[in-house]
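hey can u check if this looks right to u? its 145 residues, i copy pasted from the old doc so theres a chance i mangled smth
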Amino acid sequence: AVVSTQSTGKQVRREVLSCMQRDTTLETAFNSKLYKRAKKQSLREARITEKLEKQQRLEQERKKKQKHQEFLNSVLQHVKEFRDYHRQIQHKTLKIAKAVRIYHENAEREEKKERERIEKERLKRLMSEDEEGYRKLIDEKKDKR
């Protein structure tokens, strides 16, 4: 009985020394969870924990779906704004092009009228035998070329 008590005493001393050495290391100094013993969970607590985990998972999925939907909505909004912007630019460009075309058509028409008026004036002076006015009109025409 004495031998078994001595061996048991030695074993207890070794365990105490190993625990003291383990407890004095830096790891245990910073991690207080190493001192705690794992608690056995009851069936009721396990169900409650499972239920909470499931709720958290569902909430995370819902948030993820909502975030994805918001992203898709923002992309669609950007597409709409992009199309509208370029449609407006195209509309402005067409409007300006039309205004320039109309301006040049009017300018050409006015120029043609002026040429016809000058030609009629020249023929009128030629018929009325106003040689001096006729020559003056011909000289002006040559100067323009």
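The CA atoms of residues 74 and 80 lie 10 Å apart.
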